Amino acid sequence: METIEEMKKELQKKLSEKRYMHSIGVMKMAQVLAKQHGEEEQTAKIVGLVHDIAKEIPQEEGRKYIKENKIELDEIEEKNPALWHAKIGADIVQKKYHFTKQMQYAIKYHTTGNPQMDKLAKIIYIADKTEENRKFEGVETLRKIAMQNLDEAVLTILNYDIKKNIDKGRIIHIDSIHTRNHLLS
To answer: How many whole angstroms separate alpha carbon 105 and alpha carbon 123?
Structure first.
């Protein structure tokens, strides 16, 4: 596997400055959360860094990648290209960096969540929403929750995102609903 410094250089070429800084922020927050919650820090750091590796792939290129690599999309993902980057990214890191299934899974579900998320996947999901560049009402409270309880932080994020999507008249991915219900039961 390549070093973090090599991965950073590659990402800097692929991503806009804003997306690159977000990726650095997620890397840092993932490491902090991993240390706090007893997860392997280096793994969390690497996954956090590259979680959005496919975020800025143009839609047509993304569609071509999905087809050529036989990536399965569900009905909601088919209609929402903004969700494609998670599954494309999980495929890229497996082929390019030989990430483990666990590492791929964390990238695959960092946008929607999934009821089967393990600790690493929860850390990446939370770090994506709470990294240092995120500025929204309640982010400081969310960061404090994340340091105490990963499940509570995931649930808080899901509640916020689901409400926001309802208010904007957007479709809510079923994985988000299943994840929320799983955490509540």
So the answer is: 12
Residue type at 26 in one-letter notation: V
61 Cβ contact partners less than 8 Å away, ≥ 6 residues apart: none
Looking at residue 2, its pLDDT comes to: 80
Contacts of 119 (CB under 8 A, 6+ apart): 37, 38, 39, 150
Instruction: Give the CA-trace dihedral at 74, 82, 14, 128, to 10 degrees.
Output: -100
Model pLDDT for residues 49-91, shown as the tens digit of each residue: 999 999 999 999 999 999 999 999 999 999 999 999 999 999 9
Whole-number Å distance between alpha carbons of 144 and 57:
33
Tens digit of pLDDT for each residue in 9-64? 999 999 999 999 999 999 999 999 999 999 999 999 999 999 999 999 999 999 99
Residues in the chain: 185
* pLDDT band with cut points at 50, 70 and 90 for residue 1: low
d(CA 52, CA 57): 10
Indicate the burial class of 74 (C-beta count within 10 angstroms; 0-12, 13-18, 19 or more). middle
Return d(Cα 122, Cα 98) in angstroms, integer: 21
